[in-house]
Amino acid sequence: MELNMSADEVLGHIVQLHNTGESLAKKNVKKLHPDLMKNALYYYPSWEHALQKTGVGNIIH
Question: Which superkingdom does the taxonomy of this entry point to (predicted)?
Fold first, then answer.
């Protein structure tokens, strides 16, 4: 698997999506940002874990 983001970049991208009001629901991110999802699941055991690392884990819309 070829990765194009570091763990910090994954977290930064998640925060950026949150700040712009985009849905962080796993299904939405997988569809609209497949590279982000692929990289997040490489670095973290689950999408929810990645969200929790950013501090927005309890705010999924």
Answer: Bacteria
Mean pLDDT of 8-23: 96
Q: Which residues are within 8 A (CB) of 1 and not within 5 positions of it... i.e. 6 or more apart? A: 38, 42
Virtual torsion, Cα 12, 17, 18, 24, nearest 10 deg: -110
Closest CA to 11 of 45, 41, 40: 40
The secondary element (H helix, E strand) that includes residue 55 is none
Other beta carbons within 10 Å of 50: 26
DSSP secondary structure code for residue 61 in this structure: -
pLDDT tens column, 36-48: 999 999 999 999 9
